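Structural prep section.
Before we set up the soaks we want a predicted structure of the protein with heme C in place, mainly to decide which crystallisation condition to try first. Input record follows.
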Amino acid sequence: MRVRGIALVAAVAFATTMVITLKGFSAAPEKVTIDAVKKVKPAVVLNHGKHAKDIAKGNCAECHHKWDKASGKEPRKCTTCHKAKKEGNTPAAKTIFHKKCKDCHKKNKAKGAPTSCKGCHKK
Ligand code: HEC
Ligand code: HEC
Ligand code: HEC
Ligand code: HEC
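Run finished without errors. Recording the tokens verbatim:
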């Protein structure tokens, strides 16, 4: 059931994304599962919609730092560049996620942002 639930959520999110894309608005997904380098820790589910709208107040570049808004294209996944291992001057995925996500969470502990491993890496 849990798996079907997640598949359904993903399907709905995808459908919504498609509708929004066709309308020509930015297609920020509601939820994203970050699992590109998953090996020892469970995948991390990011409430993307809440982070984009309520927390970053629509400033996508807060996280999508290489996004060229003027290009008219959607932001790309972090993991298209940040791989399991550092490549050239591009830091590894674990490094940037921990830096980006944890730094802000430490500042927002009082607002309920998780800082423990289990808070993000949920089983
Ligand atoms: C604020 C959220 C957050 C917290 C807190 C956090 N992580 Fe992560 N971590 C991530 C994200 C996102 C990734 C990338 C996951 C992926 O792509 O598979 C990651 C990746 C990792 C990876 C590499 C992937 C793997 O499974 O080998 C390890 C190891 C890891 N974290 C360990 C930890 C440990 C240990 C703690 C606690 C001290 C911790 N993390 C706390 C968000 C977090
Ligand atoms: C708190 C950080 C954060 C903010 C703010 C944010 N995003 Fe994201 N976004 C992410 C992460 C993390 C991913 C998943 C990256 C990965 O899997 O490598 C993602 C994924 C996406 C994807 C999916 C890319 C793909 O190819 O699947 C799109 C589209 C996107 N974001 C658009 C937006 C837009 C538009 C905004 C602003 C309205 C925004 N994001 C704000 C962190 C953020
Ligand atoms: C087009 C490739 C590309 C994409 C997509 C990308 N990055 Fe990066 N990122 C880089 C490169 C290259 C660097 C090295 C410094 C620089 O050039 O800014 C970097 C540096 C960083 C750093 C600084 C690390 C440090 O040690 O100071 C953070 C944090 C970061 N990226 C987070 C993200 C997040 C989060 C996403 C997705 C929401 C993302 N990046 C998407 C290429 C990318
Ligand atoms: C700009 C600050 C900021 C950044 C960057 C950020 N977060 Fe958060 N996050 C918050 C705040 C504030 C909360 C708690 C507020 C709330 O839940 O309404 C939160 C809550 C969460 C929660 C628990 C509640 C929920 O919504 O599911 C998870 C999981 C989470 N963040 C994951 C991440 C991951 C993974 C990243 C990096 C890709 C990230 N966050 C980046 C500020 C941030």
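Observations: The chain has one domain: 34-120.
Flagged for discussion at group meeting.
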